[in-house]
Amino acid sequence: MSFALRVLVAMVVYAVLAAGTASELSAQRQPIRVRMPGNARWIWVDSVASAPASVPASPALTYKAAAAVLTELKVPLGVDEPHNGLLGNGGFIAVRMLGRERLSRYLECGMGTLGAHADVRRITMALFVWVDSAGPALSRVSVAVVAGSNDNEGVSKNALSCGSTGALETFLTDEIRKRAVMP
Length: 183
Hints:
The structure is a single chain. By secondary structure, this protein is of the alpha+beta class. It has two domains: 1-30; 31-179, TATA-Binding Protein, CATH 3.30.310. It contains five helices and 13 strands. The chain has helices at 3-27, 59-72, 103-106, 117-120, 167-179; strands at residues 33-34, 43-44, 53-55, 79-81, 86-95, 97-98, 101-102, 107-108, 111-112, 115-116, 122-135, 138-150, 160-164. Strands 3, 4, 5, 8, 11, 12 and 13 form a seven-stranded antiparallel beta sheet that branches. A hairpin with a 2-residue loop joins β6 and β7. α2 packs across α5 (167-179). The chain is globular. Mean pLDDT is 86; it is low at 16-27.
């Protein structure tokens, strides 16, 4: 085989492999990062996501159930991407309650003279749900919660970082399982 023909074959093979790799990379999700009050650095939200939980329903039904649960909790959906299986918000404000529960059930922001900071301060929260396919009638759900708090009176007190207690992730996963019922 002549040198020119070998070079041409090598270029074609390289182009085919590069095209396959590019399509695989484009199918991957872009990582989400947020900066919350009390955190000086950016946080990669997917790095704090819960372990994937199985839901016995199609990804489409699971996604609809997740959207319904977040809407019921009054979480504004800043990100609503059914084709990527991603929904949530990267920075909404909550004060005292999320749904019917006190924020201190879901977040640990420390204690003050008035009680749990999560219940008496203004909370900025990022909350995301990922829905992935695990088969034709099976989905995987992961939830990520990142939060920080500011004093309600203004900036006279330092912002505080908040950690998740894990209760919100568990609640969301359980509610999504209940609502994502196959017809």
